[in-house]
Design goal:
The chain is built from 6 helices and no strands. By secondary structure, it is mainly α. Helix 4 packs across helix 6 and helix 5 packs across helix 6. The N terminus is likely disordered.
Length: 135
């Protein structure tokens, strides 16, 4: 990044100083956003639930997002030729079911998931178990 900024400043006849400043701000903002975008761990979800009165609601909304994201990622993979592992087959799957899917998978596989594992892993395994595709 420093080399890029140095390149911009060396060719000042092509780039104004305000352009260089804007470019640097955009690069730094993009880098900071990329660094903060990571999966929530099981430990972090538990802490979120206990954080305030609304913590349980925030965790439930997060689980709904994880469930929808997992379904979309799975559908995208299936469209690109991957073998499907989650098949609804006309069965219902609604947002309010995310928490119970998550909790059931945690109980079913007690001792398997460590606190630093991502919530997405649990949700994908829950969906693949409950909505398994026929062989």
């Amino acid at each position: 990044m420093v080399a890029t900024l140095r390149l911009f400043t060396m060719h000042s006849k092509f780039f104004t100083s305000s352009f260089v400043i804007r470019a640097a701000v955009l690069v730094l903002a993009g880098a900071s956003l990329a660094a903060t975008a990571s999966a929530m761990s099981l430990r972090e979800l538990r802490a979120l639930e206990k954080s305030s009165k609304q913590g349980v609601h925030y965790a439930n909304y997060y689980l709904v997002g994880v469930m929808e994201g997992a379904l979309e990622a799975h559908a995208h993979g299936a469209r690109n030729g991957a073998k499907p592992t989650i098949c609804l087959n006309g069965r219902r799957l609604e947002p309010h079911m995310a928490k119970s899917l998550y909790d059931t998978e945690r109980k079913r596989s007690e001792g398997l998931y460590e606190a630093d594992m991502p919530v997405q892993l649990v949700m994908v395994n829950a969906l693949a178990t409950v909505y398994a595709c026929p062989e």
